[in-house]
Design a protein that fits this description.
This is Lipoprotein. It is built from two helices and five strands, in the order ββαβββα. It is α+β, with helices and mostly antiparallel strands and 96 residues long. The protein has one domain: Double Stranded RNA Binding Domain (2-Layer Sandwich). A five-stranded mixed sheet has the order 1-2-3-4-5, covered by helices on one side. It is elongated and about 40 Å long.
Length: 96
């Protein structure tokens, strides 16, 4: 089983949405659209000079990957990780 990666840039942010090819709940594009909509509704940290978001559609099982949001502000590097895409992005948004 493989994965499909959908990548795009939005402003200072690099975003990657990863779906399992075995995921029957939707298409990679649908998941990427969900992530993009959330990012547009609630902005990521505004003090970031650059950042990266990596989220996975499935986070169950022994091989689950952690969703991450990383950004740089000045000389500081921040990282937030979690097991749900929505929760991880929201946590990063609240850290602003």
């Amino acid at each position: 089983m493989g994965h499909t990666y959908v990548h795009w840039n939005t402003g200072k942010w690099s975003v990657t949405a990863v779906t399992s090819n075995a995921d029957q709940s939707g298409t990679p594009t649908q998941f990427a659209d969900q992530v993009n909509n959330q990012l547009q509704q609630q902005h990521l940290p505004t003090d970031a000079t650059t950042g990266a978001v990596t989220v996975y559609s499935q986070t169950t099982g022994s091989s689950a990957q952690a969703d991450t949001v990383k950004w740089q502000s000045g000389h500081q590097l921040y990282t937030v990780s979690g097991q749900s895409a929505a929760g991880t992005v929201k946590l990063a948004q609240n850290s602003d």
